[in-house]
Amino acid sequence: MNTHEIDYRIIGEEMQCVEVELDPQETVIAEAGSLMYMDRDIQMESIFGDGAKATQSFMGKVFAAGKRVLTGESLFMTAYTNAGSGKKQATFAAPYPGKVIPMDLSLLGGRVVCQKDAFLCAAKGTSVGIEFQKRIGVGLFGGEGFIMQKLEGDGMAFVHAGGTIIERTLNPGESLKVDTGCIVAFTREVDYDIEFVGGIKNTIFGGEGLFFASLRGPGKVWIQSLPFSRLADKIISSAPKMGGNRKGEGSILGGLGDLIDGN
Predict the structure, then answer these.
(1) DSSP calls for 42-103
(2) Which residue from 74, 99, 129, 180 has the fewest beta carbons nearer than 10 Å?
(3) Domains of the chain: residue spans and CATH
């Protein structure tokens, strides 16, 4: 294997975190700011690029870091190495309610494409890059834009997504229509395209937008029940408006109800 072999366990239900167990000199790479806690003998190091190749040239690191910026991530990642003599743990937390998905890339064809900001952490040696959508329709209407994240390697990687996660295995030629915001990830063999909802009434009143994402097998796909954008929209719509009152929570009393409730 080119990547470090790490053990792990997923902790929690609705706000999950992943505890990674490292043998001496083993390393896990993670997004900056995702650390929850770690043992004393684990050393942190900020790395430029994606951490896949220790001998990568400076320009190669600049190019890798630039690709990460295109997916909304920072220029730097953080490497956590066990510098002690026994097994040590480092734990990483998802940034919003949902699930942490463990992916053994060696069993998934060595590459998984996922939504932007999905990557949480991975064994050192995993490449975190970009996947450019060549189809104009997918880039404009697919919900993820032209650029998605790409995880490559032969070790463990962990991504996070909102709500409940459904994993589907598609047979050759089998297709699945998915809301454009609900795609978490898919393996390299899956064909990703967009499909028009169809029908004037469906388009205007269906509430699903103009397009579905179309995923065609063979391969595996992961789907989330609560995209972060949907959660953010609900929070914003319920927040106090400038010069107005907070949206009532089903009460016909409005502001008087808030007063009675102590809000």
Answers:
(1) EEEEEEES-SS-TT--HHHHHHHHHHHHHTT--SEEEEEEE-SSS-EEEEEE-SSSEEEEEE
(2) 74
(3) 7-233 (3.60.160.10)
